[in-house]
């Protein structure tokens, strides 16, 4: 029996940590949200104990004894009025606390890093901008941020309602077609934090994840410089042949590879796709094998996504996967 209790408690506590937990905060907004969660839990626990205690007292008290007590009705009236007053005070207090916590999600108007976020079925497009709001470069499903600095995310959707949620860094906020919302991220320490779409948005809603990688200032600047650069030229004959395949197929009409004639905008920017940790919005780890599998049959891996099946020979598939892997 004791072993079972220990196992159950350990299983419950296992959800309190990790790179996607609101109870494992690593930023100012997430700390404020954790404090709010703890406040709600404590107040609700106290209320539950009080209500349960009164119910037990009422059940155990003898009815005949209560009828003989002339002051029982008066005490009941006082108790009901006190309970109503306490309810109003508690609800109002929690509402005010929630309001002030929500404000922390929208701070950072003077943030040094600006990123436009577009939610799509079913992936994330990130456009980094300079101080004048001019676009610097695009990436997909993975963003890097500097530790200790505010990052302003401007959220919008181009199809249905999505919701961006990175539990260890901030609360969730919706992406609504035709409207821009603002969310501020701030990581207090380096690390990789997982995020997720938190609003049901269609068939592959569960496969719409993202990674936020917090780096020290030097590493972040190096990453920005690398991302702003055009795609590297293929390093070997196989990858060079893969580039030719990419340009001759519909790939170039849907995707951008900066520094090449490929300027499509309906799919993710692939300029540095080989350097990302995952593909398919967190579906697969980025390896040559997973790139080849995705290119060969994207609908089997992620049914309903907008990437069509492109007919390729086995040799073309090997060449194209080599080219994609080399885009770092």
Automatic annotation (TrEMBL):
It is a multi-pass membrane protein. Belongs to the cytochrome c oxidase subunit 2 family. Gene3D superfamilies: 1.10.287.90, Cupredoxins - blue copper proteins. Keywords: Copper, Electron transport, Heme, Iron, Membrane, Metal-binding, Respiratory chain, Translocase, Transmembrane, Transmembrane helix, Transport. Its EC number is 7.1.1.9. Subunits I and II form the functional core of the enzyme complex. Electrons originating in cytochrome c are transferred via heme a and Cu(A) to the binuclear center formed by heme a3 and Cu(B). One of its GO terms (cellular component) is membrane. It comes from the Bacteria. It is an enzyme of class 7 (translocase). The chain crosses the membrane at residues 37-57, 78-99. The keyword Disulfide bond does not apply. It is found in: Membrane. Its main location: membrane. This is cytochrome-c oxidase. PROSITE patterns: COX2, COX2_CUA, CYTC, PROKAR_LIPOPROTEIN. GO terms for biological process: ATP synthesis coupled electron transport. Residues 237-328 form the Cytochrome c domain. It catalyses: 4 Fe(II)-[cytochrome c] + O2 + 8 H(+)(in) = 4 Fe(III)-[cytochrome c] + 2 H2O + 4 H(+)(out). Residues 110-226 form the Cytochrome oxidase subunit II copper A binding domain. It comes from Mycoplana dimorpha. GO terms for molecular function: copper ion binding; cytochrome-c oxidase activity; heme binding; oxidoreductase activity. The keyword Membrane applies. InterPro entries: CcO_II (IPR045187), CcO_II-like_C (IPR002429), Copper_CuA (IPR001505), Cupredoxin (IPR008972), CuRO_CcO_Caa3_II (IPR034236), Cyt_c-like_dom (IPR009056), Cyt_c-like_dom_sf (IPR036909), Cyt_c_oxidase_su2 (IPR014222).
